[in-house]
Description:
Blueprint lengths: L8 E3 L11 E5 L3 H7 L8 E5 L9 E7 L7 E11 L10 E5 L4 H14 L13
Parallel strand pairs: 2-4
Antiparallel strand pairs: 1-2, 3-6, 4-5, 5-6
Amino acid sequence: MNDPLDRPSQLAPSGSASMRPGVIQLVFKEKGALYAAYISVFTDGGLFLPTTRDYRLGEDVYLLLALPDDPGRYPVAGKVAWITPANAPGGRTQGIGVRFPSDEKTRGIKIKIEEILGTSLSSSKPTQTV
């Protein structure tokens, strides 16, 4: 089975040689992949990002999201809220949990994600998140 989550790519900010973090493009083609990555326990929502890059808790992460059956791209300036290290117990995927900011624009993205997921949100099906 193909990985339903496109491999995230990190792009360096154009025209910048500074150490600012790049933009991570996350493309969700299927509702199941979005369900597996969505972090509903965060008050303002969040997403799990599989990555082998080293991050620190509280580090800024800039996402550009593409959601299933939606032609839009949604920018989110989140923060690393948890880290799943390599070789984590239970076969958990290495990566980070990105907490969405508490602002009106991102609240709209959270609502859009929850509308896409619908009743799946109350599912007991395992996810990549907490």
